[in-house]
Amino acid sequence: MIISLSVALVAVAFAVLVFFLIKTLNSAKDSLDKVSQTLQEVQKTVDELTYEVKTTVRHVNDITADVQSKIGKIDPIMDSVQNLGEVLSELTLTAKQVSVTVIEKFRKNRELREKSELVSIDNAPMTPAEERTVNSYKAANSKKGRVQAILKGVDVAAGLWQKYRK
Question: What is the pTM of this model?
Fold first, then answer.
């Protein structure tokens, strides 16, 4: 009887073990079904995102190509602006030099005039013969002075032109 009782106890224990094993396997099956469903949803979402990312990358490539072509078109303009800046800088320097030269010339002319007035013979009384001599000298020198001033102006202009061309 002990043997039959032992066999019955083993059978009951085995049945309980099988029952809990089946319950555990059913829970595992349900969990795996849920994981499988979640993976399918994730795969669907990844596929949709992949399409959108590919579309976005194509648009970015198109925009990049467009920007590069426009930058290529702007480069000559930037070079021209740089050259224009250099020319304007040289022109400003030349104008400054000319203005300094003109101011110096006027200052020297004024100083010479003031000195010549101090030592002028116009203030002293002259005889008619001396007056004729002085007037003829002034007339002769005033023509020379004008010619010299014109030649000097041409020389200054030529020098400025050479500096500008450099």
Answer: 0.38
